[in-house]
Design a protein that fits this description.
This protein is mainly alpha-helical. The protein contains 14 helices and two strands. Strand 1 and strand 2 form a beta hairpin.
């Protein structure tokens, strides 16, 4: 991994057209460091095997000592920094939405709409009525989640499993922001696991399609919500490179299970059934099998 990390350090971000395009489509999150942002780009567009959590080994105890001191100093600098007005508004809306969730799904989804449209305006600047701005908006993760929140609010969905991915997403952001102003390091373990947590709730978001089917029998969502949610996942497949990567990983895993003779027949048959169901949803119910990304058509089968 050290070799790949060295290649990352040598990569010319300043003269990279791909990085510029990525920067236009996916603006840096409010609480994201530039280094984390560059690593996220490098993993998704340059080297898929790159480990964004990797850090080069320290060469001596002195380096370890200096690194710990540097970390403590950085923590102290962060703690002594007062949150900005925008960050206070940001965290206030998230905190209020989480408090409202046990009492009203409607208020919770409405506050999510408010939060994400606020984040869209912060991350994309003044709205512009042109195609370039439309492209930026469509690929903006906050706008995707605004669409999701609006979908939950207007359909009056009460399925807590559908809410879980966005709840984990906002809670993680809340914890990462609060961690900057906490003198003890109690929240550091959660922050250090943020990449794995993000992977988890994105897979959760995809597999929630099955919870919408189960939710019909418990009165948690309407029958038509299945098709609305399916269209949302297809939109996410187009707009989010992270979701597209997760769906591709699922497809590869199912194909591996289906074609591996060492795996018991029952599991191979289940993988084949899952592939057929995914293809049926994508082709039949969702009305189409391809979407356009950057001027080229790509397949949009779910599995």
């Amino acid at each position: 991994m050290k070799e790949k990390y060295d290649e990352y350090l040598k990569y010319d971000f300043n003269n990279s057209a791909e990085y510029k395009d990525f920067n236009d489509k996916f603006p840096k999150e409010l609480n994201e460091s530039l280094d984390d942002y560059k690593k996220r780009f490098y993993k998704s567009h340059i080297c898929h095997d790159f480990d964004i959590n990797y850090s080069p080994p320290l060469e001596s105890n002195n380096n370890i000592h200096n690194n710990n001191n540097s970390y403590r100093n950085r923590r102290n600098d962060q703690i002594n920094t007062n949150p900005s007005t925008l960050e206070i508004i940001d965290l206030g809306i998230i905190g209020l939405s989480i408090l409202c969730l046990p009492f009203s799904y409607q208020y919770y989804s409405f506050l999510l709409m408010t939060y994400f449209i606020y984040r869209v305006l912060i991350s994309t600047g003044v709205p512009r009525f042109n195609l370039d701005y439309l492209k930026v908006i469509i690929h903006n993760n906050n706008f995707n989640l605004f669409i999701f929140s609006f979908m939950l609010w207007i359909t009056r969905t009460k399925n807590i499993f559908v809410f879980c991915p966005v709840l984990i997403h906002t809670a993680l952001y809340f914890i990462k922001s609060i961690n900057k102003y906490v003198r003890n390091n109690y929240l550091d373990p959660i922050v250090n696991l943020s990449t794995k947590i993000k992977d988890f709730y994105q897979y959760f978001e995809i597999f929630n399609l099955f919870s919408t089917i189960i939710g019909i029998f418990f009165g948690l969502n309407k029958f038509y919500f299945i098709f609305i949610y399916l269209q949302y996942i297809k939109f996410r497949y187009y707009a989010s490179s992270d979701i597209r990567e997760k769906i591709n990983n699922i497809r590869v895993k199912l194909e591996y299970i289906r074609t591996n003779p060492n795996i018991p027949t029952i599991f191979r048959n289940l993988a084949e059934i899952a592939q057929k169901i995914g293809t049926a949803f994508a082709n039949g119910f969702a009305g189409g099998n391809f979407v356009m990304v950057n001027g080229a058509f790509i397949g949009c089968n779910i599995f």
